[in-house]
Amino acid sequence: GSKFNIARAKRELLEFLPEGSGISVLNRDNDYFDYLSDYSSNHGSVITFGKHAKSDFRMSDILLNSLGFAKFKINEVPLEANSPGAHMPLNMACACATASALGIAFNEAIAGLATYKAPAMRLEIVLGKWETTIIDDTYNAAPDSVCSALATLQAIASTNRRSVAILGEIRELGDWSIEAHRVVGKCAGNTKLQVLIALGPATKPIVEELMSANPSAKISEFESTEAALLQLTNLIQPGDVILVKGSRALAMERIVAALKK
Questions:
Q1: What is the pLDDT of residue 68?
Q2: Is 99 exposed, middle or buried (0-12, 13-18, 19+ CB in 10 A)?
Q3: Which of 49, 94, 121, 144 is deepest in the core (most CB within 10 A)?
Q4: DSSP labels, the chain
Q5: CA–CA distance from 233 to each of 46, 135, 195, 220, 236 (Å)?
Q6: pLDDT 10s digits, 172-183
């Protein structure tokens, strides 16, 4: 129903930490960090990660290359992600924090991260028809993950290829649905998205925000995945970089299958 209710539900997990010996691993950048950490500190220790200067595992100097792979630092140690995604530095900082809670040395955690590969349908880069590049992120969707995927799309498309996002609605958001889709629309505008193919009625706020930020963007709206599949060949151009992402219920991997070489 709201972001606060999500934070409150997360805090329920902390109630089961053993008194005095529990360990919480928390995102120092999160809006509800104080709300969670105040509660956690009563049960045990708190380990933090994020961009915040007071993070125990602080990420900095983040750069995405033309393939969407991040170069960055954690506690001033240089790292490169083996999988694309603007979110990877945050995830890897979280992994280091969690490893430390388990007694794993920082250098061991770094070595482990060097071998990580994302599973299928999670920002998976595949070749498509007509010399297109597809970013398959169809495993599921949440506002933050869609914004991260749009940033990755921008990095790969850069200035010389057309950026196309095929975005399905994000479900299970309750009363927060309209606001959450507006957040995604603002991200689309900030990343200068050129083409939006929107699936499902809940994506209307994404369309509105993108139209406001970038009136020249080409926008197509469809009621369902099936309806979009019938028109795909008319909407895609040779050389496009195409992000495909939406809630699991929309089965958007069918779009990826239709676009693959």
A1: 82
A2: buried
A3: 49
A4: --HHHHHHHHHHHHTTSPTTTEEEEEETTSTTHHHHHHHHTTTEEEEEEESSTT-SEEEEEEEE-TTS-EEEEETTEEEE-SS--TTHHHHHHHHHHHHHHTT--HHHHHHHHTT--PPTTSSEEEEBGGG-EEEE-TT---HHHHHHHHHHHHHHHTTTS-EEEEEEPP-S-GGGHHHHHHHHHHHHHHTT--EEEEESGGGHHHHHHHHHH-TT-EEEEESSHHHHHTTHHHH--TT-EEEEE--GGG-THHHHHHHB-
A5: 51, 17, 14, 13, 6
A6: 888 889 999 999
As beta bridge partners, residue 242 has 134, 164
Query: Judging by beta carbons within 10 Å of its beta carbon (0-12, 13-18, 19+), is residue 50 exposed, middle or buried?
Result: buried
For the stretch 156-172, pLDDT in tens is 998 789 999 999 999 98
What does the angle CA 46 – CA 147 – CA 252 come to, to the nearest 5 degrees?
115
255: left (phi over 0), alpha (psi -120 to 50) or beta: alpha
CA 256 to chain centre: 18
Q: What is the mean pLDDT of residues 216-230?
A: 97
**Lookup: tokens for 159:** 């200035």
Q: What percent of the chain has pLDDT over 90?
A: 79
Q: Are 59 and 90 in contact (CB under 8 A)?
A: yes
